[in-house]
Amino acid sequence: MSKFWIVCLMLCSFGAVAAGSSKEAKVTELMNLMDMDALIDNMYVQMEPMLKNVSKQLDIQPSEQPLFDQYYNDVLTIMKTDFSWEKMQPGFMDIYLREFSEQEIDDLLAFYSTETGQAVLKKMPEVMQASVQLSQTLMQSAMPKIQARVKQLSDELAASRLAQ
């Protein structure tokens, strides 16, 4: 009788492992369907203008351009190495496995297999870039107000501490 239960437990545990690997395989399929490695590569293409904008912010002079270019290339190399798809993929796998049920992954696979799903994937980098630009614009207009409030807080704290 106890052998029966041991066999049942073993079969159940094998089923759990198989279910886990099935979900993992689906997440891998989803990442391939979403062309995540290309999305990561596209991220660098979008970051290049932002990094080059640092040149304007630092007021790089023509004589300083070679030095800036060297640092720029070094930073780009570091980012492409340290944020490569090979390094990011295991983390994305963990996130997707943790955050999405197998049914949700199945639904995502179904959606991204459609023309609309593929259109979303193709347009998402531009949507994200426009969203970042919008956030930056809004932040620029809000920054003076935020800085004024921080200064008020700092002044009030200083006055309060002097009074103690």
Would you spell out the secondary-structure blueprint of this structure?
Blueprint: H1 2-33, H2 36-57, H3 65-82, H4 85-99, H5 102-112, H6 115-163
Task: Characterise the protein shown here.
Residues 1-18 form the signal peptide. It holds the Pfam family DUF2059. Keywords: Signal. This is DUF2059 domain-containing protein. This protein has 164 residues and is an all-alpha fold. The chain has 2 domains: 1-113, no CATH class; 115-164. 90% of the residues lie in helices and 0% in strands. It has helices at residues 2-33, 36-57, 65-82, 85-99, 102-112, 115-163. α1 (2-33) packs parallel to α5 and α2 (36-57) runs antiparallel to α3 (65-82).
Compact summary:
Helix content is 90%, strand content 0%. The protein has 164 residues and is mainly α. Residues 86-144 form the DUF2059 domain.
Give the key terms:
single chain, 164 residues, mainly alpha, 6 helices, extended
The dominant shape is extended
What share of residues is helical? over 70%
Tell me the fraction of residues in β-strands, as a range.
under 5%
- What is the ordering of alpha helices and beta strands? HHHHHH
Q: What's the β-strand tally?
A: 0
What is the structural class? mainly alpha
Q: How many structural domains can be distinguished in the coordinates?
A: 2
Number of helices: 6
Radius of gyration: 25 Å
Instruction: Provide mean pLDDT, rounded.
Output: 84
Q: How would you describe the oligomerization state of the chains in this entry?
A: single chain
